[in-house]
Amino acid sequence: MRKDNLRRTVVAAALAGVVAGSVGTGAAAAQDLAGKTVEFVIPFAESGGSAAWANFFAPLLSKHLAGNPTVVVRYRPGAGSTEGANWFQEQKTADGTLIFGTSGSTQFPYLLDDPRVRYEYKDWKVVLSSGTGGVVYLPPDLGERFDGDFDDLKDENYLYGSQGATTLDLVPLLAFKLLGLQVDPVFGIEGRGDGRLMFERGEANIDYQTTSAYLKSVVPLVEQKLAVPAFSYGALDADGNIVRDPTFPDLPSFKEVCEATEGCETSGVGWDAWKAFFVSGFAAQKLIYLPGGASQEVVDMYTKAFEDMIAQPEFAKNSEETLGVYPQGVGKAAMAAHEQAITVTPEAKQYVLDWLKEDYGITMQ
Fold it and tell me: Where is the signal peptide (predicted)?
């Protein structure tokens, strides 16, 4: 499904555009990490999409960073990823041996003024952005009744394993609300991989995974007829419209399913809020940062490493197989994604805050 030539052309064009828009680094390789170990920290458990993403990039960074250091992925899960982000905020390592990978689950508490947040994105130095997608799926007994809308599935009671309503799970939970589904989230899991395990054990009957985790761990379930995909969240086209995710062109986007489901509206403040957090959580979802104290020389070294990596002929194919069909941004493109990820309109923010209070009793104080 993911091997068609058209989408390979899209990937190549997207990657070419990203590289063309990046900041030129010139001879930035005066910095050298020979003999050193780079810790690539992600604030999640090792079973989810962020782990797959980090483990894809770690060996490539080792190959392309000056001095070919060892790059090791470290996991610091807790408090919906805010614990790891708070830890990173306090780090003073400035020599390039520490990088941090965030996700929408880290961006959302920041956007919503979560009191657990003691980190400031504007203090950090972004060196890569990765867009991604997500797929919602059902067990076979419900999946066989799904025909492009949820009209016949609204009377079902759903259980969903969630990291928390202010994490990246905000996007599916708000989508479920707009669709009119009765979904009871089981809060407290450490990563989306734990949500998938709940689904596999029959403890949850609706789930979603980001693209990398879906390709790795859910596609085998689909092939064994143990799971049925319902929709992807979609992707943004050049004009900012939601279209089908190029990694899953055969799946309807959430917008299509919403339009087909009675009572679900694709206009108004509810839709605007969902789209705003979808953009922050998926179109600009994953970002790699250096601590704020890193020098421009270190930033340039990482930018050059990612530019060289993306320019390799095999990168598009390998990244498609592991991460899906999404551009990787460096330089100016990474900065633009960083701005998208940490920006939300007051109206969308207030809608989400009101919804969190009314449906889950969550207030940001």
Answer: 1-30
